[in-house]
Amino acid sequence: MTPTTSTPMSTPTSTPTSTPRIRVCVDRGGTFTDCIAFVPNAIRPPGHAHAHADAASTGGFRQVVVKLLSVDPANYPDAPREGIRRILELATGRPHPRGEPLDTSNLELIRMGTTVATNALLERKGERTALLITAGFKDLLHIGNQSRPNIFDLSINAPDVLYERVIEVDERVTLVGFSAVSSGMAVDVPKDDPSYVKGVTGEWVHILKRPDTAMLEEPLKALIRDGIKSIAICLIHSFTFPDHERQLGDLCKSLGFENVTLSSATMPMIKMVPRGTSTTADAYLTPCIKKYLEGFFAGFDDGIRQSSAESSEGHRGVRVEFMQSDGGLVHVDGFNGFRAILSGPAGGVVGYAMTSWDAKERNAVIGFDMGGTSTDVSRYAGRYEHVYETTTAGVTIQAPQLDINTVAAGGGSRLFFRNGMFVVGPESAGADPGPACYRKSGPLTITDANLLLDRLIPSFFPKIFGKSEKEPLDAVATQKAFDALAKSINAFLKDKHAKETGASNSSSNSKSPAAKKGKAAKTEPSDAPAFVPMTRDEIAYGFIKVANESMCRPIRALTEGKGYNAADHILASFGGAGGQHAFAIARSLGIKTVLIHRHSSILSAYGIALADVVHEVQEPSAFELVAGQLDRIKERVAALSSQATQVLSKQGFKHSQIENQVYLNLRYQGTDNAMMTLKPSDSADNWDFASAFVAQYQQEFGFTLPDRATHVDDIRVRGIGKSAAMGSDASHTKVHEEIKRLTRRAVSVGEASTTEHAFWEGVGRVETPVFELTALKVGDEIIGPALIIDATATIAVEPHCTAVVTSEHVVGFVGRVPSSDAVAAMDESKDGAAEKAKTVVVPKTADPILLSVFGHRFMSIAEQMGRTLQKTSISTNIKERLDFSCALFGPDGGLVANAPHIPVHLGSMQEAVRWQMSHLQGKLKDGDVIVTNHPAAGGSHLPDITVITPVFDHGNVVFFVASRGHHADIGGIQPGSMPPNSRELHFLVRNGHFDEAGITKILLEDPAKFDGCSGTRCLRDNISDLKAQVAANHKGIVLVKSLIDEYGLEMNAELAVRNLLKTVAKERGTVLHASDRMDDGSTINLAVTISTQTGSAIFDFSGTGPEVYANTNAPRAVTYSAIIYCLRALINLDMPLNQGALAPIDVRIPVGSFLNPSETAAVVGGNVLTSQRLCDVVLKAFHACAASQGCCNNFTFGMGGRREDGSVAEGFGYYETIAGGSGAGPTWHGRSGVHTHMTNTRITDPEIMERRYPVILRRFGLRAGSGGHGQFNGGDGVVREVEFLETLHVSMLSERRVFAPYGLDGGEDGKSGSNILMRLVANDSVASTATPSTTTATTTASEDGRLYRVLNFGGKNATVVKPGDRLRIETPGGGGWGKADTKRKRAAPAASQAKTDDAASGDSPSRPRRNPPRRSGGGSLQAFTDMQHSA
Hints:
The chain is of the alpha+beta class. Helices cover 27% and strands 25% of the residues. The chain contains 31 helices and 59 strands. It has a 9-stranded mixed β-sheet with strand order 21-16-15-24-25-37-36-33-30, with helices on both faces. Helix 5 (213-225) packs across helix 6 and helix 13 (536-559) crosses helix 14 (578-589). The chain starts with a strand and ends in a 5-residue tail after the last helix.
């Protein structure tokens, strides 16, 4: 590829060296490596001596650009080094032969962004690593937050952990006090007790057990003998107490480990799981980076090794810096793995930010980086937007990273027609075979669609294809492939048309325009219009339209999802394919201005040139943001700022070049999502973080919580060494100023290099001028449709858009009227494109395209509703565990789109909407919001509260939006539940008024009227969460209303279900049967009868057991949810989930069965237990996989509520569901320690749990061997053991404690679960009042000097625990699949393959008693135990 050179307008600034030398910036991408060099004019090839004098007097630089393949082993071993070699030859004119060390005498600076760490993570080719972790948590990082990445993937394809060995360290510390109630922090710490110390945050830490380093030596030496030389260390609460980690780190270094990574040093933030995964990622990746650097440096002379992080004046070594994920550069000595994940994309963000943002205009910019396989989008509004916890390749990273969203849609994304829909990606053709036009028999892609529409011109594309690697793009192959696809699409549409216009009109799932408006659809007359097939052009552009919409989706999430209007932004497009789609993307989003930089195809390398060196320091905190703490906060900020300044000063930066940005990570009391808040910059004395935080919170969430205290979780200082490789002028764009004063020159069609008969939306095919960018001058204005092409990119200027060339950019104006001169120039030709654009009309886009486009649009709305709910909620259940769902519904109450939240809500929310439509017919008004939780009204169980809002248009209901959230406590006999006494809907908002008094009466006062019951123990959280649900619905309404006038609606899930049923009938017969029993003996019986002609089926539950005198009855809506989930999982394709999925299904449930119980039946267990067993039965009937754990393992504890004297004690309610094993399938092992089927809620991080509640999590790991044995093994369940530190109400609601999860095809059953209550013998008098379902198994156990009475707690039980008591929950494993080969050793299920070395594990004494004295919870204990069966 031929490099290009040009002369910049400005002079580069210099890092602390004397004479300027060559500065090279490199972006090593997955396919191409881009290099841009800034060469002093004093360095010239021979024969250019005349330029030397000018260079000496002006200090001018010129640019050299080189682009080459990232992998080309036949020609060079390392692309960045090869790029630098070529630059040196071009700059000096002297040969630098390959294979010889490169002369560095002319090199001053090398900056690089690299995918080395990313590729090692994606391909799992990092360093062999071991993990040292607190005893009891060896499997913690495998379990993670226990959710699965794709809720409909039965095989649960999740990446494995990065370490291969684990050593459990017998050490333990815990925090003193708990924050769930105000009295929880009123603790007495024993004086002169060395086991009590203050942590970094200022919190008291109790050391329960110190590590015995002598016992660890032999296991560590064994690792070294096995070839493992990288260690990750993560101990619980090390974010505030790092001493034990440091001890172990010193030991590991002394034993000879080459890399030792401490979690407390890597990222000292609370949350053990993300801190642990970040630590293992660093230990896994940093050695890879070091090895790469050694190879890289080996290609240079010794000059490159003379540079260090501590530079000195006049130092002549080559300074080497790397781009980090946060957008800052770091010296090579400080570059590590977990901060390198977004090294390449980060350069692009810096590039567009510095070349698009105008500090005077202050127009926010959206970065749109479209490559071959994916598209990255981000936002810049004067400062970089960071996130502090992200997941890449299945690994959660806790570190500052630029907020970059990636969507699997790029030029190489494949095109499919599935179930009546146009689908783009996520599969990619890659570089080999590549698109169909690459002459390697590849599949159709977006690149092919642009080629077919003549928006990609082969004559301007590099001729590098075919066997000779000298042939152009193969347009004929693309045309043939689209012809075949068009044949398939039109056959489907023709059949659909015949059904819609024939005598029978009942089988169609589409709606006529009349039906869409709520009117009855009429039968089409016999002389209905003839079928008109789609053309190749319509099909190709349909795919482009779908791809554009999928790329708009993350942009809407970055803008509208955070309270910004997307239309108020500028779109900065870069990347190889960005220019072809930028104008269309901007139009879809309402954006008026597009910026495409002249270096858009290498903008990541250019951005690296503009970046600054950054050194960050951070420490955790537990301050409250009040005036009395401000001086202490300032002290810590000063200390951290001094550290950052010292590091940068040692690198040679002068004080004037260093800027320290101060951040406080702030959150409201009782919430967990902290916001990193920048110190106001208007004055050094302005420390008003509170106002900045409130403004930021209001902007993103739409409300604030003025009655709550603000807490400081972390103090962060970002030290910046101003060091752009280019001059300061170049790092601040002048395009906005330039475009205002620019004299535009109209460019005529006659000046075009050529014309193409290209296709454009709204105009069809028209003669389109093609301009070469190099031939255009500053001020040239072009009216669309037109194509602008340079050596590496094509810009498609859409109709009714204009493009103006400036000194740095091509500036696009979308929908803006061009100058009169430009219109006249483009109208010169009778066949001019502008004239054609006015006269050619194309029919409305075909329905399959609309289905696909609005599948994305509606799902985007539901997802944004979910994000709003998560962010604005207060409770752990919704904000952290994500126990909620958001959905859109049509005017008939039918499901339109459901974001992939909680499967058990899938069908039941639709029933809730339809029930309220019937109940409130004619009574709904615009602005009304209804709240309901009754099972007979479409509810799942009482703690799940549904908020429903109708969407009106011209006085008619056109949509409904709804959100359902699990509230941890809504009153009743115990924390976390409520007796079934509320039977009416309630207007939560009426005439724009939020009825707080009414909902308070329902939640607080009404339940307390019943014997043994208390009102909600978390009223403030309930009110806040309900307001969050209203806010989520409001977000949905705003987004839906923008679509109502423009489009109708069709359902498309029905076809996929019918095709599935037909396939099943052919393979397994037309009658399927399965049954299973609940632990109480109740039978779930299912017979499925399939019609092979229509693809419909009857799901008949005749023979199912009667309503039970317990709480495992399930409303009908739960059965619908289970069926729709199973069908979607069996289809196993991405598709919008809507009411069409149940259209072919006739569900028959006997009245009076426990799947169709009476209105007064207790149903709390039906939602969380019976629903799981229903999934097992349905999947068993379809012979899809073995049984999973069949349970949610509902664990609840709490305190407070109404006392016997009628007063109300401060309290809390905590609720969690616990993972188990998933069932194996015909081609996969079951996954261990994961949530399955009807739930996917997260579990609270151990450190958060212990900080907030009076408990110690003694153990959380896999239950080895609990998965069923087979050809494919079932996943293992988990063991979760909790010690209680206060008097608390505790309950368990679980299944599969009697009947084990079944295996299939000869696979063995998984093990059933168990719940073990361990009473401290000192509390034995209390133990005698408990009612364990089985007492015969009671034994006496001795542990660490304490005696326990061990009791089988049974599957469903409740009690009151005292300090020191424990509950051990052992969850079921999944069933195995296929008969095992007895000669073959049992393979591990798809779980953690890490081996474990135990280092003298053991438990230790609990924390001492606290003051004031502990209190019993509200309500009568006798009433509590008497009512448990109907709770």
